[in-house]
Amino acid sequence: MPATGVFFLPTTSSGSTEVSMLQVIIDRLETHYCLHSLSRWSLEHRLFRETSRQGSAEASFGGESPKAHEPRYLQVLHLSYHPDCSYLAVTRAHSLSELAAATPAASSSKIEDDREHATIIAIPSGSQTEEFVQLMLSRFGPLWTQRQVLQVVNGQAFEAGDFRVKVGELRQGQGGSQQSRGVVTELEWITGDENDWSSAEAIIVGFWEGLDVKGAKGYLRSPGDGSGFNTVRQWCEALRTR
């Protein structure tokens, strides 16, 4: 399978808007590559934080024994380019592994490989995903508290050389009360092999550094678990801490 990486460029207090940051990334892509436009894409992400440490709650999502002072996070993620399913991911507070990729100096950084992978399953999208969310809000409120809702609407996608690039504006909230959080980018190395992660990591980070977009953080993960959810893990890591 192709190798991927997710990058998050936060909104700053310097006056830059998410629209201008998005355009900066697209302009840099156009400077270096002959772009071919692909279908637009979208994303929706919900984050729930555990409010109870009872063993029954632990068993409901993952079946592991409770660990003191380590609340679990339940994430519901839908990616429009995987239209038939949504993803449920359960992680603990310490389970992030990330790569800071803000500047060319990021090439000296390394991925911190965590020992506890998130538990991820896929469920049918549409009404069944909505029913699950409503169940969490109405019946499991004492155990799980919704912390945030994030969306990418009308994201743009391109082919750029050996990469597929998805970029979009990340907003928090629903309806008319949305707050700008920044810009997200997914890089997919089409000709790469995620089983050769050491090479894939260098190529993906090198592609991003070549755009010279400062202030971003990259989320890359060595596969290793054979679940097929590697890109989903990257998105969940990137979005959980917004």
List how many beta strands DSSP finds. 10
Q: What portion of residues belong to β-strands?
A: 25-35%
What percent of the residues sit in helical stretches (DSSP H or I)?
Answer: 10-25%
Largest sheet: 10 strands, antiparallel
Q: What are the low-pLDDT stretches, counting only 5+ consecutive residues below 50?
A: 55-59, 94-115
Mean pLDDT: 81
Class from secondary-structure proportions: alpha+beta
For the terminal residues, how far apart are their CA atoms?
28 Å
The H/E string reads EHEEHEEEHEEEHEH
Task: Characterize the structure shown.
This protein has 242 residues and is an alpha+beta fold. It contains five helices and ten strands, in the order βαββαβββαβββαβα. Strands 1, 2, 3, 4, 5, 6, 7, 8, 9 and 10 form a ten-stranded antiparallel sheet that branches. β8 and β9 form a beta hairpin. The longest helix has 15 residues. The chain is globular. About 11% of the residues have low confidence.
